[in-house]
Amino acid sequence: MNTNQIEALIGMLAVVALFAIMILPAVVGVVRDRRIDRQLRQSERRRTAGERSYRSDGRVRTRTYRLHTTR
């Protein structure tokens, strides 16, 4: 490779790197929005079907209420 080819390669790599840096925030935002939309759809299905809330391991989420006493 001669000097002109190396300069062209460096220029192309710089353009690709800048393009990736500019596109990355948009891609992250789209992925985040899709995750939120999926969670909202799941929540709506649970609410309309009258299902209980489940944890990620499949067990039913329960709450433990404790009586607070003062000494």
List the topology elements.
Blueprint: H1 3-49
Features:
71 residues, mainly alpha, 1 helix, 0% strand
Beta fraction of the residues? under 5%
How would you spell out the order of helices and strands?
Answer: H
Give me the secondary-structure category: mainly alpha
Name the helicity range.
Answer: 55-70%
Question: Care to count the β-strands?
Answer: 0
Structure, described:
The chain has one helix at residues 3-49. It has 71 residues and is mainly alpha-helical.
Give a summary of the structure in a few sentences.
The protein is mainly alpha-helical and 71 residues long. The chain has one helix at 3-49. The mean pLDDT is 82.
